[in-house]
Amino acid sequence: MSKKTHTCGELRAAHAGQTVTLMGWVNRRRDHGNLVFFDLRDRWGLAQVTVNPDQDTAYQTATEVRPEYVVAVTGIVQPRPEGMANPDMPTGDVEVVAQAVEILNPAKTPPIYVHMDGGEDEALRLRWRYLDLRRQRMQHNLQVRHRVYQFIRGYLDARDFIEIETPILLKSTPEGARDFVVPSRFHPGKFYALPQSPQQLKQLLMVAGFERYYQIARCFRDEAIRADRQLEFTQLDIEMSFVEQEDVIQLVEGMFTGLVGAVAPHKRLLSSPFPRLTYAEAMDRYGSDKPDLRFGLPLVNVSDIAAECGFRVFVEAVAAGGQVKGLRAPGCAGYTRKQLDELETLAKSLGARGLVWMALREDGVKSPVAKFLDDGTLTDFVLRLEAEPGDLLLLVAGEPDMVAQVLGRLRLEVGDRLGLRDPDVLAFAWVLDFPLLEWNAEEGRWDAKHHPFTSAKPEDAHLLDTDPGAVRANAYDVVCNGWEMGGGSIRIHRRADQERMFRVLGIPDDRVQAEFGHLIEAFQYGAPPHGGIAPGLDRLVAILADEDDIREVIAFPKTTTAQDLLFGAPSPITDAQLRELHIKLDLETGER
Ligand code: ASP
User: Alpha-carbon distance 445 to 509, whole Å?
Assistant: First the structure.
């Protein structure tokens, strides 16, 4: 076999006259009378190959090739005949006139057509992932991913960060999800847990004196799969010593800004420096701790007007300690019954009892509740929401968390309907001052909002025993276009503070010893003040590659039902394996 001299994608008019050898996959073949054409494809693009019948053997072979055959072609690059250039193809000015065609490996008729981009059921794409990955879109996405990794490594290396790997087989590292566990053969009845993140490890690396660490780390969390979540996902795990929140923010902001320029220059950063808002502001104005800031339309509190209005549902909601908030949908006053019903259905699906609308039409304010309100009150709502003629107002009443969730989601829906969520705009922002703790009503105790290693704001620390819910954390999230892109915090680094935190979380001393003993022990041997962050790389790559679903930027993702359809995982193991692990299965339903 001769050697590949050029890639399929690189041939241009300047190559005319050169003899080249290309190797790749047959994209499509066309017979034109007595000529055979096929496009040869490799990672770098497509080249048109023409085979004339006067090249006897080559012609004979060319008539046999089919899509996805692996083929070597040697021939001369020639300008395409007058009028035959293809401006849509980077190599469209030339073709390779074949002298030799060799089939390196034939292919069965592929179950999905590589040259046609997608469209089939995702299950089919994942079952035949190696074929799906041949497609231009997937090749591009993984290329973007690679570029992101290279940029990050260069950026952090230039700032004296050191890349260190940490174990996959370890012990539970709580980040609020369920652990994946692996039975130990050497230690019957004992299990490793796969890390939910390298959180404690990176903190120990700070105790170990590395000062600036990063790792492109795989994290494992046994939780429901969604468009932005997989069982295993990749984080850029970062930790630094002797830093404050501002240092982490500057580092990451510089990195993201540089990344967009280097990897997705067609995207526009909406604001730089990234705007900052507190968690309380984000929840109040956008009903979300990961607001989409590509557009305004903030939520507006109208509880005071609602409390005194004639509409009983509003009055009662406020009297019961709830809220009434509203959202302006510019230019939507003409929405039809059907469109309004769609919005109401969405609101109800998220827990709202109903959705009140007011439309500022030419002939006055139309609303199903208008009959309960006097003109003055209607005007108060309109003025407070800064509505203009032609606008539609959407109002929700009830318990504040629900109101935030429903209106936050409606805001995104309105943004979508009005085309305000431009994929080429990146609205990064920082959300700061998260609460340290979150009340777990089911179990009647406080949970860490971020994780138990996050420190409290020094000025709030005195509230830990008296009013834990009011304590703000030294924690920060970076968000973009409605996605959480990463979160981090300044950590607790003194043993006594960490033990106090575990007490607030109601974790008994023996469990602290068993699960976190190594960490609090380390804090006694000179732990520096430290903090860090962990941006999610799957989401970052998806945004830069214009994908909505992280599965499109992961080579071999799992389905939403947690399966790998190519390998058929998960799968049973043999009885011998089970015996070795001292495991007896007790399945009520199942295959064994
Ligand atoms: N370990 C955290 C997480 O996985 C990130 C951090 O605090 O650095 O969300």
Answer: 16
